[in-house]
Write a structure and sequence with these properties.
single chain; 335 residues; alpha+beta; 8 helices; binds FE2/S2 (inorganic) cluster
Length: 335
């Protein structure tokens, strides 16, 4: 005799396997974790680690030698642009190659043609733009870290493959093999999309080239950071005030407070050298003026936040950039 109504929650009839509820939930889980899993999987590829280490060893010293080169800084975007150039430039090959697809899809003339047609011109322009984009990406890659570096390298390899496919597409197009050119162009755009996804992961998930101090506003009131007697002269000192990491520095009686987390990629400025009231980030060498946070050398493109200071009762006090809202005076109600 059957028991149960067959509705959710009823026990499975004897002799029948209950549907494993966990399988659908784990499938659902996989649907929302695959991107994190993908990044983890990439990070575990031995050959990718080896290649990343090898390139780091080869390019690191070159970068250090040319750290003051303004062209290299401009390739990051740097203080003049204020934003990284690479993501902006990457729109160009994607847009141009997508245009090639549209022209190919709407071309009703089946006759084979040699030479550079409109689609070929867009393809060639995209290849040129991809070269410039690759240059800025490689430059940014040299100032990335750890897992970001490996995922970034894979992103670059995919883009290199896409560039090769697009080059082959252009070559076959010029030679008159339009069917092959279209197939290669479509493959190139698909690989570019996969590379673009990884680029998005680096920016939106990992915050690569995103200001690390964009939300640094605390403390909202004057807050004690350190006893005045505990701050040595001419020695960067890390303190924490209401959760915000700050570097204090005193020179000839003048006191400076600057955000200790480097806006570029989170290096601790208090571990870097100070010369002429300018601190150098120990991670990738950005330089910030202690007085106003101005960038005097990239890769950082944004000024480093500085905090006002004062001394009260033997304590150095600091305050963030956004004061606490005023309290209504006693006896008065806010409108
Ligand atoms: S973390 Fe890159 S320059 Fe500071």
């Amino acid at each position: 005799m059957r028991t149960g109504s067959g509705q959710a929650g009823d026990p499975a009839p004897a002799g029948q396997q209950a549907e494993p509820a966990i399988s659908s939930s784990s499938a659902t889980t996989r649907l929302v974790t695959w991107h994190g899993d993908l990044a983890g999987w990439l990070d575990r590829l031995d050959w990718l680690r080896t290649l990343s280490d090898w390139l780091t060893a080869a390019l690191g010293p070159v970068r250090e030698r040319h750290q003051d080169n303004l062209v290299l800084e401009l390739l990051h975007g740097g203080r003049w642009v204020g934003h990284p150039l690479h993501p902006a430039l990457s729109d160009l090959p994607i847009g141009l190659w997508a245009g090639v697809m549209v022209l190919d899809a709407t071309d009703r003339d089946p006759a084979p043609r040699r030479g550079l047609d409109a689609a070929g011109m867009l393809s060639a322009a995209g290849i040129l733009a991809a070269g410039a984009t690759a240059l800025t990406g490689l430059n940014d890659w040299t100032v990335s870290n750890d897992q970001d570096r490996r995922v970034g390298l894979f992103h670059g390899l995919l883009n290199t493959a896409a560039l090769g496919l697009q080059g082959a597409s252009l070559g076959t197009r010029v030679a008159g093999h339009r069917g092959t050119a279209r197939a290669l162009g479509a493959a190139s755009l698909a690989v570019t999309a996969a590379a673009g996804y990884l680029g998005g992961h680096l920016v939106f998930t990992k915050g690569v080239m995103v200001s690390r101090v964009a939300w640094a506003i605390e403390p909202r009131r004057w807050t004690r950071a350190l006893q005045e007697a505990d701050l040595p002269d001419d020695s960067p000192t890390a303190v924490v005030a209401e959760g915000r990491q700050i570097m204090l520095y005193r020179h000839r009686g003048s006191l400076y407070a600057i955000d200790n987390i480097c806006s570029h990629a989170g290096g601790l400025l208090s571990r870097g050298p100070v010369a002429d009231l300018t601190v150098t980030c120990p991670l990738h060498g950005s330089r910030f003026a202690l007085a106003d946070g101005r960038v005097s050398r990239g890769p950082a493109g944004q000024p480093q936040p500085v905090l006002p200071t004062r001394i009260r009762n033997g304590w150095i006090e600091v305050r963030g950039s956004q004061p606490a809202p005023r309290q209504p005076a006693k006896g008065r109600t806010q409108p």
